[in-house]
Specification:
This protein is an alpha/beta fold and about 525 residues long. The protein has helices at about 1-40, 40-60, 85-90, 95-100, 110-125, 140-160, 170-200, 200-245, 255-265, 285-295, 340-355, 370-385, 425-440, 460-470, 470-485, 490-515, and strands at about 275-280, 300-305, 310-315, 325, 360-365, 395-400, 445-450.
Length: about 525
């Protein structure tokens, strides 16, 4: 009793206000019920109220949150610059995205658990042999990931959240404080008004309640869908950061890499040049093909001999991609006496060439049907690429040279329609391309016939440039990944530089402390 009296003395003014508002509405409710009783309509009113309640209940079931996600969100594709292994990690996380969308996290702890689960999934896919895969990152890498993630979040808020740059946190805290102090009173007043409304006009009040139920169910379903999609978008963004983190993509800045390229070659475009290697047997026409491509570029071309006897040509011309054409030594020169020696020679060749380029142009002569060496070494390259899904695989493009020497020998009147194959020469070129595709190429790899007759313009070089251009985006991603991969290797010179800079910094701190 003492506590009740104390509360009454402290809040009697608020109680008087509530009674002044509620009593008139309660009186109206009683008068309305009395009016229905006098007109013998009270039972009809109760029956209508029950029927409307049943309809409202059924409508609520129809608009439940479980049906809000009937239309599945289409899967988000992986980033094109990712390696096959990173794309597999993204595919593994798709189930987590769908679970988060259907049941969004409702607390900080649930968010933390979902984030840890996604990090573990990505880490185990990218580092399956590590004892603690989730720890396979460096401190600078995780700091860079946090910097990029927070930067992306800031940009999204500035662009899409109304008032994000004007509303302060103190304003939000003030609104929250007012809600905590007055929210209960406002809700109580609203409930009392709903009760009083039945006394004034029962049918209209019932209809308004039904409308409120329907609108509330629809709003709840729509909000749950929006909430789920937002949670999925945040989860996908976090998964991208996790895959980039465990894929060592934060170890080297792309901007830093481009700055190094510009510093090394100021006249070159600020991008990693695409390296195109030309492989094939001796006398297959590799050098002639490279010369034909160089003849199409009206610009200075730098030439460099490599220790392995290859010749590299750097192309920089307006209207053409920035390429490095590598004319390699011809195949078929290995005369190893035993199978073991040949296997060792093939292994050395694969180790030297598998990851040295971003686009492979395999040159096969149309008049040389013996392609055992081509098939053996190209298969060895494919095996090497398949065993390293953490790296991007170079694209393969097959070229059939000496098309002009096919039968009939005396006929040469290009261009030829290989689809229609109206002439004997066109049919021969088509059959040669099909034979090379069967012997060397996979289903999605193009085959381009080429002819380089002395004294005449090369045949079908434009088609070769088109095939190179179609695979250029993937080749550029491969070039960038190759450059990033080379820079993430452990280098003693970089460690020595870091030790020197750290020592100088510590020395400055020590002498500064002594001087103080």
């Amino acid at each position: 009793m003492t506590l009740g009296r104390s509360l009454l003395r402290r809040h009697w003014r608020l109680l008087v206000r509530l009674l002044a508002i509620v009593v008139p509405f309660l009186g109206l409710a009683g008068l309305g019920l009395w009016h229905l009783y006098l007109d013998d309509a009270l039972l009809i009113w109760f029956a209508a109220l029950a029927a409307l309640a049943v309809i409202a209940w059924l409508a609520t079931l129809d608009w439940s949150g479980e049906r809000a996600l009937q239309e599945a969100t289409p899967p988000t594709p992986a980033k094109p610059e990712w390696t096959p292994l990173e794309q597999q990690a993204w595919a593994d996380l798709t189930a987590d995205f769908e679970a988060i969308e259907s049941s969004p996290p409702a607390s900080i702890e649930e968010v933390r658990l979902a984030a840890m689960r996604m990090m573990e999934t990505a880490a185990r896919r990218l580092h399956p042999d590590a004892s603690v895969p989730t720890a396979r990152f460096t401190v600078p890498d995780v700091l860079r990931a946090a910097e990029r993630g927070l930067g992306d979040l800031r940009r999204q808020m500035v662009q899409r959240v109304p008032g994000a740059t004007a509303v302060r946190v103190s304003d939000l805290l003030a609104v929250h404080g007012h809600y905590r102090r007055h929210g209960g009173w406002l809700r109580g007043a609203w409930y009392l008004w709903r009760v009083a409304r039945f006394g004034m006009n029962p049918p209209q009040a019932a209809l308004q309640e039904l409308r409120g139920v329907l609108e509330g169910g629809a709003t709840s379903a729509a909000w749950q869908r929006v909430h789920g999609q937002f949670a999925r978008a945040m989860a996908e963004e976090f998964a991208r950061l996790a895959i980039d983190l465990y894929g060592r993509r934060f170890s080297v800045e792309v901007e830093q890499l481009q700055a190094e390229i510009i510093e090394a070659a100021p006249e070159a475009p600020p991008e990693v040049p695409v390296r195109v290697s030309f492989f094939g047997q001796v006398n297959a026409g590799k050098s002639s093909l490279v010369n034909a491509l160089l003849g199409e570029v009206q610009a200075p071309v730098s030439e460099r001999r490599t220790p392995a006897g290859e010749t590299e040509f750097r192309l920089q011309s307006e209207g053409r991609p920035d390429l490095v054409l590598i004319d390699t030594a011809g195949l078929g020169t290995d005369v190893s006496p035993t199978a073991e020696a040949r296997a060792a020679s093939d292994a050395r060749w694969v180790a030297a060439n598998a990851w040295a380029c971003d686009l492979v142009v395999w040159v096969a002569s149309a008049i040389q049907p013996a392609r055992e060496d081509d098939h053996r070494l190209l298969s060895a390259l494919r095996i090497e690429w398949a065993t390293h899904p953490e790296r991007r695989t170079p694209r393969v493009l097959c070229v059939v040279t000496h098309a002009d020497r096919l039968s009939p020998m005396r006929e040469w009147q290009p261009p030829y329609d290989l689809d229609g194959a109206a002439s004997g020469k066109a049919a021969s070129i088509r059959d040669a391309c099909r034979a090379v595709a069967t012997d060397l190429c996979e289903s999605d790899e193009p085959v381009v016939p080429i002819a380089m007759r002395p004294g005449t313009a090369p045949y079908n070089v434009d088609a070769l440039w088109l095939a190179i251009s179609e695979g250029l985006d993937a080749a550029r991603q491969s070039a960038l990944h190759r450059a990033l991969f080379d820079r993430t290797r452990f280098k003693w010179g970089e460690v020595a530089r870091q030790v020197g800079q750290g020592s100088r910094y510590l020395g400055k701190l020590m002498f500064k402390g002594v001087g103080a």
